[in-house]
Amino acid sequence: xKKIFLVLVCFCCFWKxxxxxxxxxxxxAVKVKIEPNDIKSVTPQEAQTFYKNPEKKYEYRxxxxxxxxxxxxxxxTDQDNxxxxxxxxxxxxxxxxxxxxxxxxxxxxxxxxIGYGKLIGIDSNKNEYELKIKE
Length: 135
Prior knowledge:
Elements: H1 2-16, H2 44-47, E1 60-62, E2 69-77, E3 83-91, E4 94-100, E5 106-115, E6 118-123, E7 128-133
Antiparallel strand pairs: 1-2, 2-3, 2-7, 3-4, 4-5, 5-6, 6-7
């Protein structure tokens, strides 16, 4: 009888002590905003994660896993088929940078990936630039 009573008491104790599922706090998604002037310098925070790989198309990358920013040299044309060159920084699908025309004027642009190695850039006057990553 004592054994049955002891088993029932243990069963009740363990049944009452069910663990609550651990709730993992959800981090809000951080939206990275890249501006054209960001290409002019590497911040001290970015310098800690600076990585350069000559075998890849990007000049360098900064950041942590899944949050990398990539820096590319680009070449392309404007709407009038004038050649432009420049440098951009991208994070996932979007980025920004500065393009240079033949007369060496600089044009700040926002860019978006449209294909493998291909981007579209738009300046503040809504002019579009078709860009490719320099090989």
